[in-house]
Design brief:
Elements: E1 2-3, E2 10-11, E3 19-22, E4 27-31, E5 42-45, H1 48-56, H2 63-81, H3 85-96, H4 103-113, H5 120-152, E6 158-162, H6 177-186, E7 190-196, H7 203-215, E8 219-222, H8 227-232, E9 238-241, E10 245-247, E11 252-255, H9 258-267, E12 272-275, E13 281-282, H10 299-302, E14 303-304, E15 307-308, E16 321-324, E17 331-334, E18 337-340
Parallel strand pairs: 6-7, 6-9, 7-8, 9-12, 10-13, 12-17
Antiparallel strand pairs: 1-2, 3-4, 4-5, 10-11, 11-16, 14-15, 17-18
Helix pairs in contact: 1-3, 2-3, 2-4, 2-5, 3-4, 4-5, 5-6
The structure holds the ligand CSC[C@H]1O[C@H](OP(=O)(O)O)[C@H](O)[C@@H]1O.
Residues 58, 61-64, 164, 166, 170-171, 176, 203, 241-242, 244, 254-255, 320 line the site of ligand LNRAV4D5.
Family: Belongs to the EIF-2B alpha/beta/delta subunits family. MtnA subfamily.
Protein name: Methylthioribose-1-phosphate isomerase
Catalytic activity: 5-(methylsulfanyl)-alpha-D-ribose 1-phosphate = 5-(methylsulfanyl)-D-ribulose 1-phosphate
Length: 344
């Protein structure tokens, strides 16, 4: 048995799992990402309503982790509602709608629902198979991305810039863009990682810095607004980001701020690499213009840690994501290789 490096729990996969099923409690167990970096704690979620709340406050977040949450949530609903399949489907639709941009959430829900005719046990088995699949798929996608970075960047060791959080915490295990960092760091190819703090919810400052420190990867935290200057000063060899939904033409929806990074990277001739499992590619969406962008509460901008930093009632523009056109992307890399981008 292995002690899970992130959850601290024993699991037999030898990999750090951020979200899992606890058969003893018949509940979903997940790392509460809202408490990090100050506190490492696990949430035990035994109802779909509680899971939706956890998703909406980003206690569980990141496209692959949301896919797993969606599938496990359906398994929870099937166990609670038994043969009342209408109730299971109603819960499933509420779950899939909890956050509209990351396609993996709905994808995970639908994959688990497909097993419902075989019963609650089959749904749980499908969800658990997805957990194991997630780590394999993301290791492969990030390994392809790491190879591409080595091919496209002559300088050694590498100075990488990343945005938001795309590591173990954003997936069931391993991660996507940070997964490529783990591969490159293990091979001795990383000088440092510049981690965007990623306003307003600070996934970079709170989560990516925490993961990089635990992994022993040299890093520096920077304001999102300093990323372009870092590129202009020659401090960046490659930008590595994740994705929440990739359109059929290769346009990429990702954490807000990604588009600006791509524009700056293009201006400075810096490779811009997107890492995602193929489950994040949504071929039903022709291009980025058709991707629904989640708009989040004003309080995320007008307050920091509960302290008001803007006038009462200040009107805001707070999209959780933006869309980077494929023309600005060197490569969208999945477990199958390069899906889109200039490097194809
Ligand atoms: C490995 S996917 C991570 C992806 O999800 C993040 O969004 P959020 O923190 O709102 O779930 C961000 O867009 C990351 O690139």
């Amino acid at each position: 048995m292995w002690v899970n490096r992130v959850t601290g729990r024993r699991d037999n996969g030898g990999v750090a799992r951020t979200i899992d099923w606890d058969e003893h409690e018949a509940a979903i167990v997940l790392v509460d990402q809202c408490a990090l970096p100050a506190t490492y704690r696990l949430l035990h979620v035994a109802s779909v309503d509680d899971l939706i709340a956890a998703i909406q406050r980003l206690a569980v977040r990141g496209a692959p982790a949301l896919g797993a949450a969606g599938a496990l949530g359906v398994a929870l609903a099937a166990r609670v509602h038994g043969t009342d399949t209408a109730a299971v489907h109603a819960d499933a639709q509420r779950l899939a709608a909890a956050r509209p941009t990351a396609v993996n959430l709905r994808w995970g829900v639908e994959r688990a629902l497909a097993a419902l005719p075989e019963g609650a046990g089959a749904v749980l088995a499908e969800a658990r198979s997805m957990l194991a699949e997630d780590e394999r798929v993301n290791r492969e996608a990030s390994a392809h991305a790491a190879d591409l970075v080595l091919q496209r960047c002559a300088r050694r060791p590498l100075r990488l810039l990343t945005h938001c959080n795309t590591g173990h915490l954003a997936a069931v295990a391993w991660g996507t863009a940070l997964g490529a960092v783990w591969h490159l760091h293990a091979a001795g190819h990383v000088e440092y990682v510049l981690a965007d703090e990623t306003r307003p919810l600070l996934q970079g400052a709170r989560l990516t810095a925490w993961e990089l420190a635990r992994a022993g990867v040299p890093y520096r935290l920077l304001p999102d607004s300093a990323a372009a200057a870092a590129m202009a000063q020659g401090l960046v060899d490659c930008v590595l980001v994740g994705a929440d939904r990739v359109a059929a033409n290769g346009d990429v929806a990702n954490k807000v701020g990604t588009y600006g990074l791509a524009v700056a990277a293009a201006r400075h001739g810096i490779p811009f690499v997107v890492v995602a499992p193929s489950s994040t590619v949504d071929k039903t969406v022709p291009d980025g213009g058709a991707i629904v962008i989640e708009q989040r509460d004003a309080g995320e901008l007008t307050h920091v840690a509960g302290a008001r930093i803007a006038p009462d009632g200040a009107p805001v523009f707070n999209p959780a994501f933006d869309v980077t056109p494929v023309e600005l992307v060197t490569a969208v890399v999945t477990e199958h290789g390069i899906f889109a981008g200039a490097a194809r």
